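Quick one, T. Sequence first:
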Amino acid sequence: MTAKTLEAQRRLPYAPEALCAMVGDVRAYPDFIPWIEDLKVTGEKEHGGVREAVAHVRIGWKHIQERFSTKVRCAPAAGEVDVSLVSGPFRTLRNEWRFSPDGAGGSNVRFRIAYDFKNPILNALVKANREKVVARIMAAFEAEAARRCGVAQPTV
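Structure tokens:
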């Protein structure tokens, strides 16, 4: 089967570096991301301002629970966070966040996730709710950005 892709773009009034660092802070995900019930980080290393770690995640939705592990690469200076599958219920899992200046003191944010569950029922469930899934993920990150970065001042 081929991977399914979900994408979203936003313009947010916060610096790209701050947003990239926030998305790279995977330890905080259980505090604000829907469905993440537990997350442990192992194997951390940093080289040249690029952080890499493995995140072991437990997600839950209604009566469904799954565990998986991902490699997370965060490069704030480049405005990039990349997530790739280590193990779990997926055939494919690739997630990328891109942050670039918008020219007015804020950021253009691009989120993309490509996935393919091994279980066809999980694939069908996400497919049936794909717009809700993306909306909830983006809303969670936008709310966390407002909480961490504060209320943005209007640009002149």
